[in-house]
Amino acid sequence: MAALIFFLNVSKAQTDSTKYRKLKIDEVNFVTSYYHQNGQNSAVTGGIGDERLDDSGNSIDLQLSKFDKKNNKHIFGIELGVDAYSSASSDQIDLNAITSASTNAISHASSHDVRISPSASYLFENTKHNYSLGGGLSFSNEFDYTSMGTNILFSKSSKDKNTEFSAKASVFLDTWKVILPAELRPASPNLKYNQGDKAPRNSYNLALGLTQVINQRLQMSVLTDIGYQKGLLGTAYQRVYFGDNGNNAYSEKLPDNRFKLPIGVRANYFLGDRFILRAFYRYYTDSWKLTAHTAELEVPYKITPFMSIAPFYRFNTQSGIKYFKPYKEHMLSDNESYYTSDYDLSKFTSNLFGLNFRVTSANGIFGIKQLNTLEMRYSYYNRSTNLTSHLITLALKFK
Amino acid sequence: MKKKTIFIAFGCSLLVLTSCKTVKPFQKSRINDAEMGLASRKIEKYENNFLLYREGASGGNGGKTGGGCGCN
Q1: Whole-prediction pTM value?
Q2: Higher pLDDT, residue A106 or A341
Q3: A and B: number of Cβ contacts within 8 A
Q4: Helices and strands (H, E) in chain B, number of each type
Q5: CB-based contact A338:A255 (threshold 8 Å)
């Protein structure tokens, strides 16, 4: 932390003396969160069983920039994320395990793990012709999943900067180490992958966005993300129990491709001098016949120009995929090609609500000169399947 | 039902677009407020992450549509 503040000071000094030339640190962001979840529909045990999960997420990102001789801006970003989690359900990949995640005496690597995700990005901003061009690389690794991603993006603003079009194409080339339920190892009776195999999962996304300033108080955006995934899309260690197969389970089986089409609309309105209305709506559909509607409203209230408190509420309803059935409701005699008992893909409604607190100051917060913004957010989530969760996040921005 | 939805969406879009005004830079004090930003925010990063795992729908919000994690 001390080193960071030192570099920010040096950076500021350089900015003053060599404006528009040298690389400087624009901002540094820390985000830390704690997530706790409870439920009784674990997919690992076929739609029944403990879904308790704890996750601690932490990330730091640095944004640096410089201006070249033509007054174009070059922005560089680097980020490192580290998530540590413990999961009661993952500990049930082997049902004969004596210990559990709750005692910290784990039986599998899967019952607790660390996910590390570094990424880097570059953006070129042509200030004369109002366009930006950039790209990024990302990597992520956890005990059974490795991801390599890349993206390119382009955006163009109108002369008055009231309209902006953006396009971002991204590719994730992921590899999933196949882990079967312990009783099915080493060879899967229903999947084409066996224990320990490396299965691919590739994702291709194209995001297109249009942002428009409507008037002095209102701006809106429309965003669509066309997504296509191919490879192992089911989770091999999630069980499905059939009603006519006793207590013998199979791995869940899902199609090896999925086409997704979400369309989101966001509108932010400054009401009077103290209220802001942040509204969002999304319609989603995919090739697994899941459709969803999501609506969200957040209302920041400015206690002072630099401090705000914002209650928020989000409602989501989804139809569920056509391959889902609860515990023992699938029948082997039905000869279904695909089946799952994962409640994340079932029909449900969910509510998310909470409070966001934000304070910002150009002169520093709590006597720390470089601390520009402090933000805290708490959210509570409940699903009609009786899954509940709490999330608390702290974000600090240093400038 | 579908026709009605399309009609309402079209009507709303028309209403919004016709109410667009040219807003000059010096008139953007409210639009440029940090909390008026339309992009996804850092503080929502982990919230969006867990929703990606817990729900079947994704994308359309400036976050991920898929890939990069063992999520839906």
Answers
A1: 0.90
A2: A341
A3: 200
A4: 2, 0
A5: yes
